[in-house]
Amino acid sequence: MRKINRTLGIIVFAVVLISNSAIAQNSDHDIKTGFSEKYDSLEYAVTSAKSVADIDSLILEVNALDKGYSDHVEILDNALYPSSYSAEMTALYRSINTAEQKLLIIENQSERLSKLGNELAQYKSELDIMNKKTDSLRTAIARSHDSEERLSKLVTSYRESLERRDELVMNVIDSMLVSYNGMNSAKLQELADGVESGRINPDNNPLNLISAVIEENTEYSKSNGRALSVDDHLRMYAVQRHFEEAWDQIGDRMIYVYGGNTKKQWENSIDSKMKEWRMSTSKNMWKSMDNYLEFSNVELSAFDNNYSFFVALDKFVKDAKEESKSQVLSSESYDDYKKFQEFWSGKIKNEWSNLVQDAEVLTVAQISTIDQQLSGWEAEARPIHPLILILLVLTGVALLGFMFVMFKTRSAR
Questions:
Q1: What is the pTM of this model?
Q2: Helix/strand/coil (H, E, C) string of the chain?
């Protein structure tokens, strides 16, 4: 009986031992399975996160996972071999940190894009308002049958409106210049990715605004007729040059960011429109300058660019200086000098000074050269004062009289 009891005891002990081992194995399996399922779920959620807020919530869940399974490190180390619990959790934390940094960059991109888009939208709105006012004034001028005084007021308002519009255009391109000129390749790529992902409204694409500004300015340049002065054409020419110089600096960057799959088309389109704008404003400015000089009776040889204008001015002054040498007793050459000096100092160096420099109508060196030539012309052209002529005549007569007396005295001896 004892033997039977002993045998039964051994059997029971073996059964209990086997049961405990099976329970332990099942428990280890449950721990590994539970950990893996939660880990895989969190790993997928991290890669699918759309915002930093999502990441913040996931960090709490990862912390809870770590806390919940930190007591089973040995079991999980065996189950995860050749990896380990520590390695897997480190990888998950690294993944979540990477995702957070990426989303922070993306949200910063979106904020930057939104800010730029809002600025451009505001500029576009202001330009639209200004264009409507300017177009209205231009139409009123074209249809005006009122008095000269009324027409003069309309023209003045139109010119002021164009000047304010030109200032706004300068603000647009300067704002873009500041925004894009300092961006490195990484930032440009970030913005391009933001645009490609649809985080910017296509209607706010700055390339559309730039293209529209160029078209509108070209149209204004071609249709202004005689309503504008040399000052206006100089300013419009200076605006075009400034706009084109800025575009040369940031154009490639902006096309890279906003051009999408049509980068080459954008580049060709804007370059073509820019060329047309440049040709139109240049033609108008030089023609206006020529008309002004003709009206002022300053006849220069033909010019249509910076160099030919300088050559014409230089030749005119040199020729006038040489001609003055044969007109010592005449004031005609000096009158011509004063007429030209009034244009040169009054307009080029004073009234139009900033525009002349901004548009590079003349360089500082060219202006200095003309100044030197003018000094020589003045010296040659300044007529001799009548009193000096009288003194010279009297001196001459006195010398002749003295010589005659001396001759008579010698003859008498």
A1: 0.62
A2: CHHHHHHHHHHHHHHHHHHHHHHHHHHHHHHHHHHHHHHHHHHHHHHHCCCHHHHHHHHHHHHHHHHHHHHHHHHHHHHHCCCCHHHHHHHHHHHHHHHHHHHHHHHHHHHHHHHHHHHHHHHHHHHHHHHHHHHHHHHHHHHCCCCHHHHHHHHHHHHHHHHHHHHHHHHHHHHHHHHHHCCCHHHHHHHHHHHHCCCCCHHHCHHHHHHHHHHHHHHHHHHCCCCCCHHHHHHHHHHHHHHHHHHHHHHHHHHHHHCHHHHHHHHHHHHHHHHHHHHHHHHHHHHHHHHHHHHCCCCCCCCCCHHHHHHHHHHHHHHHHHHHCCCCCCCHHHHHHHHHHHHHHHHHHHHCHHHHHHCCCCCHHHHHHHHHHHHHHHHHHCCCCHHHHHHHHHHHHHHHHHHHHHHHHHHHC
Rg, Å, the chain Cα set = 44
Residues in the chain: 413
Instruction: Judge whether 343 and 226 are in contact, CB under 8 Å.
Output: no
Contacts of 286-293 spanning 24+ positions with Cβ under 8 A: 288/228, 288/229, 288/230, 288/233, 288/234, 289/230, 289/233, 289/234, 289/361, 292/230, 293/343
Q: Is the dihedral of CA 58, 60, 62, 64 positive or negative?
A: negative
Q: At which residue do the structure tokens 């073996």 appear?
A: 14
Asked if 236 and 217 count as a contact pair (C-beta separation under 8 A), the reply is yes
Contact yes or no for 296/288 (Cβ under 8 A): no
- Tens digit of pLDDT for each residue in 262-321? 899 999 999 999 999 999 999 999 999 999 998 888 889 999 999 999 999 999 999 988
138 to 219, 222, 295, 363: CA distances (angstroms): 12, 13, 25, 34
pLDDT in tens, 176-196: 777 777 677 777 777 777 677
Cβ distance 107 to 51 under 8 Å? yes
Nearest CA to 62 among 43, 47, 80, 81?
43
In this structure, the number of other CB atoms found within 10 A of the CB of residue 45 comes to 17
